[in-house]
Amino acid sequence: MSLNDLLNGAANVAQFLIPAAIIAWADRRKRAR
Amino acid sequence: MFPGHFAAGLAIRTVEPRAPTFGLMVGVGFIDLVFGVLVPFHIEGGSFSHFNTPWSHSLAMSMVWAALFASVYWRLGIRVMLAMFAAVMSHWGLDLVSHKADMQLWPYSAVELGYGPMFGGLGGWLEMLVSAAGLGAYILWARRAENGPRRWGVVAVVMAVMCVLEVAVVSAT
Question: How is residue B76 annotated by DSSP?
Fold first, then answer.
């Protein structure tokens, strides 16, 4: 396993997980005040 | 079809609101995540610069990954499991219309599908259309749903940023 492959793999995973996490956070219902 | 995948997840969210959002968003990218893990371990057969995706993206394996992913949500009921299955399979469907002929039916099958070239220069517009449709459906649902998500504007911004990045990446390559 080369470092380049590992970094590409990590970038590939991150490019989905980061937007997924932001969307999931934004999609949470706001608590009623 | 990067923002397009998320758009599919947003559309599924409106159909099955009990499906956890993070699960749906991971689901729509799940076979790409599998690809990202398999390539460094030299299991996939291709590389990041030369796509060959028998174990992550073939139709048969996508169904296996979708079933495995959906099974994680068995406690939430069959509808949520079906939503998760659909989320994972939506990736295959969207890749089918955006990739060149590299989508195998099963690992190393002789038949490789992909209708991306059919759309030529219109492929980018197709992606924007899919993204807008999924986001539009989500916003309409979020605004109407009782006690629905109020931060749909943030979702819209994230989608817009992904669309801009996609255009920038495609233009640069």
Answer: G
